[in-house]
Amino acid sequence: MKLKQMKNQELKEHGVTLVALVVTIVIMLILAGVALRLSLGDNGLISMAKKATDKYKNAQSNEEYYLDTVTNTIEDVRESMHKLTAEELSENPKKYYGSYVNYGVDLDGNSETSDWKLFYVGGSDTNDSDDVKGRIYLIAADYVPMNHSALKGVVAETEEGESNTGLRRATGEGYGTLSAYWGSSAPAYQPLDKLNPNPIKLFMHEGYDLSSKSDNPNSAATSTLLNTDNWSGFVNKVYYGEVAIGGPTLEMWCKAWNQVVDETDTINNLKKIYANGASTSGSGYYWGIEKETKNRYGVYLNGTLDSPLANLTKLGKDYPVFFPHTTISNVTANGVMGNCSGYWLASPSANDSSHVMAVNYNSHIRGWEYYGGWGLRPLVCLEKDVKLQKNTEKSNDTKIVYDIVK
Hints:
Mean pLDDT: 86
Largest sheet: 7 strands, mixed
Low-confidence stretches: none
Distance between the termini: 121 Å
Number of helices: 9
Number of strands: 17
Helix content: 25-40%
Strand content: 15-25%
């Protein structure tokens, strides 16, 4: 009996009773429940931690957004203040060619719009002559309507009438508003050697000697496009315009195209195009997809001779400075609707003595009879040492507009 009392006393002093164990477990469960309630739920520790993490991420994103906004604003301000020289422009033709330029010659009757585009910068090609280097060239962004005041004296006012250049409005419904052609007989050759500055050198028409073939109708017709006196109505001295011609020469068109074209375009398989003048034989220019190609008739920009590009819409969208339209009917150009197959280039074709070079609506570069109807896109050469400065008010994400400054 005494021994049993001693064991009970020992358990009381050193052991854990079953009741105490149960109580301990209950307390632990209660504490665990409290901990879970504190951790879980909308206001729990885990939720609060997640919300804190999300707030941090949002704050970080907002900070990055504001930093980007500030950076872009600084870049816009810097770009709007910076005056781009011809040398800077020539280093990145793909970025700048096709940009709109405020030139001050209104083509569409809306003085708020910019009707001219950057077409070429002298020095972009390493073979450019000193006459061309440092020059900035602008092209009419679209066909010039035949009733435009700057064409008075160049294009006859009526389809039947003659002008001093022999150019008339093209006949046929819709054509007369946007196209011009030479009459049934080409005009007399217009000497260019006494013009200052010399358009032959300034506009790269150096691969073919027009004067040596002045009796060819295509040379005579081309002299109309190259005679700067005919196109003085497009020279705006206030905006530093110096001289203008009736359209790009084949050489300049090819050089500009070659600097911009994407030859990795596997959809259309676009190719570079080269002008090859025939100064001693033939009647004009050969051209092709290689520098020594002697193609006489024409070539599509995918390098083939007999089929246009598959995706003309893409061509007109991606390269509007070269192809403002990829259709022939119901063309709206500078506020006027009409039909137009393309536009004249200021170069004769070697295909025939009656063929003048033209850019076709379906990506075809070829010679056409001088009495066929094509549009006019005059080319303006600015004074040397002018610069372009971004106009931030008129520019947006899809359209960059530059002002001409000194």
